[in-house]
Design brief:
345 residues; alpha+beta; Triger factor/SurA peptide-binding fold; Chitinase A, domain 3; four-stranded antiparallel sheet; 10 helices
């Protein structure tokens, strides 16, 4: 995913793509001013000295760093007048863990003597400058964030890029899953891809209120009859779907009545019985289910079996990559913490 550096609300577009799910903010061995990933711009706010909340091998992390990390995890806090009280402990712990992890990653990059090529730094600096409409806005942001020092700003940019590079090398690249690996998983875990008999349906259901009186029930039946007669004249998916949006009371009416593929065991037996005798494209008879009335268009019928690899690959590969990414990140975190001195204040 593309990352962005936020420096007190100022965005620097990252020049690296990385699938590891981490923010990249700022506590360093030389400054407490944070650099954080942020998915959407925020107004620049003055940077003030923060109270220390943790030390990682001597590097100080502040409450300001923590607040910004929480904002990254829960970006809608400002829209909702802060974070719900019930979520505060969990969010604080998650933010603290992430903040410590990032600092450990940065320190590991320094230990490995990783560097950033001058041309890449130049490109990142140019991307940073392009965030501002005028030179005045740029100068103001620089003064607020780093007292006008481009040297300090470059250090922040370099820190971000080093974190990204290490995570790319140790997690993102190693987490990639080839088609051959995905196919091997598919073969080994074949039961996971078995399915029962499937029906692809669009439904229209008329559902009267609970304990409806006879008049209301009669009105519901008339509405169902009228809708069914119109449905019998539809020629395709779209025409039936538009009727579903107009007449149906079930939860799928907002999606043109489309229920996609549903296993037979999850459908009412009367619906299954009717569907088994139909051909794709046909509209069923009107079926009464308790006090409700329903009918459907059959779009597809698949016998019980195993979903082909070609159909699951698109979801299987990213799912496997996510699981691998989570495992590699956890292993890296444990490895870095093993020899680190971490103090939560």
């Amino acid at each position: 995913m593309k990352y962005q550096i936020r420096i007190g609300g100022v965005l620097i577009a990252a020049a690296i793509t990385c699938s590891a799910q981490v923010a990249s903010h700022a506590p360093t061995l030389n400054t407490s001013t944070p650099v954080a990933r942020q998915e959407a711009p925020q107004a620049t706010a003055p940077v003030v000295a923060g109270t220390p909340v943790a030390r990682v091998n001597g590097a100080v992390l502040t409450d300001r760093d923590l607040a910004r990390e929480i904002q990254t995890i829960f970006p809608y806090a400002k829209m909702h007048n802060g974070m719900p009280k019930s979520m505060e402990p969990e969010m604080r712990k998650g933010a603290m863990d992430m903040m410590i992890f990032e600092e450990l990653v940065y320190q590991e990059a320094l230990r490995r003597k990783m560097t950033v090529a001058p041309e890449r730094m130049k490109k990142a600096e140019a991307q940073f400058r392009r965030q501002f409409a005028t030179q005045q806005e740029f100068d103001q942001a620089m003064q607020i964030e780093v007292h006008g020092s481009m040297t300090l700003m470059r250090e922040k940019i370099r820190r971000f890029l080093l974190i990204e590079d290490l995570l790319k090398n140790d997690i993102a690249v190693k987490a990639r899953v080839s088609e051959a690996e995905a196919r091997a998983y598919y073969t080994t875990n074949s039961k996971q891809f078995q399915h029962g008999e499937l029906f692809n349906l669009q439904t229209i259901s008329i559902i009267p209120p609970e304990n409806a009186n006879p008049d209301v029930q009669k009105e519901a039946r008339k509405k169902a009859d009228d809708a069914w007669k119109l449905a019998k004249g539809t020629k395709d998916y779209k025409e039936f779907g538009l009727l579903a949006e107009r007449y149906s009371d079930d939860d799928w009416h907002v999606n043109m009545g489309d229920r996609k593929s549903v296993e037979a065991e999850k459908l009412p037996p009367p619906v299954v019985k009717v569907a088994e005798s139909m051909k794709p494209g046909q509209v069923s008879e009107l079926i009464q289910l308790g006090s409700a009335y329903t009918f459907f268009r059959l779009n597809g019928h698949t016998a019980a079996g195993k979903t082909p690899f070609a159909e699951v690959k698109g979801k299987l590969v990213p799912d496997l990559e996510k699981a691998k990414t989570d495992r590699l990140r956890s292993e890296l975190n444990a490895k870095l913490r093993k020899t680190a001195k971490i103090e939560v204040l």
